TrEMBL record:
Domain of life: Bacteria
Protein name as annotated: Carbohydrate ABC transporter permease
Membrane topology, as annotated: Multi-pass membrane protein
Keyword Transmembrane found: yes
Family classification: Belongs to the binding-protein-dependent transport system permease family.
InterPro entries listed in its UniProt record: MetI-like, MetI-like_sf
Annotated organism of origin: Glycomyces luteolus
Length: 293
């Protein structure tokens, strides 16, 4: 008598035509503007208005446009790039560290007014930053910090959303038993945070850092009202200044339009590099707390 062994049927991967079409449409929605930016950066001023917008012209002018962008007005674009890098890195790094400290404090320490203060933070998340720009300018003008780099860096350090995110992440990733063990070993509170907790918070910290970096890098309204010196402009305000000059002069400054587009292309390269560098921390943070132990 022979017995037959039934082999388990291999499940075929499920495919959804609707989902595939939706993903392709979403990819096109996000990638098409970037493709247009690359194409437009390779054209002269005349080709921008006389050729098809979503394809290259016969004269590939990208490298010449890059050279002109970097040398325009005695290389002021490089100064704007350096200013943007200074504002973004300082504000993002400091803001992410403050958010991690505050989120850890709200999550692991019990003190009078903890819940009330956290409710205030939640309310601050709902307040648009543009609504606070004018009051912030008046305060900084009174203390003599307007038209200085501190006028951009200090307001950008405040990140209520980052604090909320870090508090949730601390509750999911930092066990109380680990903190008690560190205290029994004689570690101070700051040593526990910087040598134990901060390592566990690396994915969440990188997420807040990336969000703050993108926000400060793309910030336009705050530098616009805080800064008067063109030498202190970030890229956003500097390119808007070139665009305004081109619009005011009409055809006389038409050559500035390709420089504005090329400068926009150059300005997103550091963000792409930062995203690729922080992506592994960000992806690992997305699944933190998904498995109950």
């Amino acid at each position: 008598m022979t017995s037959t062994v039934l082999k388990p049927r291999r499940q075929r991967p499920r495919r959804s035509t609707v989902l595939t079409i939706g993903m392709l449409a979403a990819a096109a929605y996000f990638l098409l503007p970037l493709f247009w930016l690359v194409v437009a950066s390779s054209k002269t001023s005349e080709d921008l208005f006389s050729t098809f917008g979503l394809w290259f012209s016969g004269d590939f002018h990208l490298f010449e446009n890059i050279r002109l962008t970097l040398t325009q007005d005695d290389g002021v674009f490089l100064k704007w790039l350096w200013n943007t890098l200074l504002y973004a890195v300082t504000a993002a790094g400091g803001g992410a560290l403050l958010a991690a400290l505050a989120g850890y404090g709200f999550s692991k320490y019990r003190f009078k007014g903890n819940r009330t203060m956290f409710m205030i933070v939640l309310g601050a998340v709902m307040v648009p930053t543009t609504a606070l720009a004018i009051p912030t300018y008046l305060v900084f003008s009174e203390i003599g910090l307007a038209d200085t780099p501190w006028a951009i860096i200090l307001p950008s350090l405040v990140n209520p959303f980052g604090l909320l995110l870090m508090r949730v992440y601390v509750e999911a990733s930092v066990p109380d038993s680990l903190l008690e063990a560190a205290r029994i070993d004689g570690a101070s509170e700051f040593r526990i945070f910087f040598q134990v907790v901060l390592r566990l918070l690396a994915p969440g910290f990188a997420t807040v850092l990336l969000f703050a970096l993108v926000h400060t890098w793309n910030n336009y309204f705050l530098p616009l009202i805080m800064l008067n010196d063109p030498e202190l402009y970030p890229i956003t305000v500097g390119l808007a200044r070139w665009q305004g000059q081109a619009a005011a002069a009409g055809g006389a400054s038409g050559d500035l339009i390709p420089l504005v587009i090329t400068g926009s292309l150059l300005s997103i390269i550091p963000l792409v590099i930062a995203f690729l560098f922080l992506q592994r921390y960000w992806q690992s943070g997305l699944v933190a707390g998904a498995v109950k132990q």
